[in-house]
Amino acid sequence: MEIETKIERLTYNDLEPFFIVFNFLLKHDFPGYTPAVVNYFLEKVYTKTAFNYWLNSGWKIVFIAKFDQKIAGFAVIDKPYGGVCFCRWLGVLPEYRNKKIGKKLIEKWIDYARDYGCHKVEIASQPEAKGFYQKCGLDLEGKRILSYFGIDQFIFGKAIGRPSDLAMIKD
To answer: I need a labelling partner for 81 at 20 to 30 A (CA). Which of 120, 134, 165, 167 fits?
Structure first.
């Protein structure tokens, strides 16, 4: 069942509640990562300070899904490079699943990539999410065995345009 959800770009005003949701989902929804790896991510890489920097610099773009003014999910997107836009993290709180929120976040990501001039989107998925990405229309392109941080990953992608030198070398 679909619910009325607003997808918007993360602002400084929503950084604190976003980080609470991000922290919760990293700890509970990415079972391939050990607790030590999750703690490393949250304490060293994907810190509140880092997200603050990325918001300011544009090196990562974060879309949040809001339902009734509460953050229900997010997509953390790397700044496009070489014409490809990579989604680093995508998560939806358990109570908001099966309501098309994840699909809406993917659609927003693809719209952003198209507007930027990208020719492709990509995401690396843990095995548990493989079916979800296939239902969202992304193509399974391969599998990494014991990839980063020791987990297997499925690589999904979708061609969304034609390669353009202008987009591929955009700052």
So the answer is: 134
Contact 2, 99 (CB under 8 A): yes
Q: Is the dihedral of CA 137, 128, 25, 145 positive or negative?
A: negative
Q: Are 84 and 119 in contact (CB under 8 A)?
A: yes
DSSP states of 82-113 as a string? TTEEEEEEEEE-GGGTTSSHHHHHHHHHHHHH
Q: Has this prediction a pTM greater than 0.70?
A: yes
What domains, with CATH codes, occur in the chain? 6-168 (3.40.630.30)
Contact indicator for 93, 105 with CB cutoff of 8 Å: no
- Give kind and range of the element (H or E) at residue 133: helix 130-135
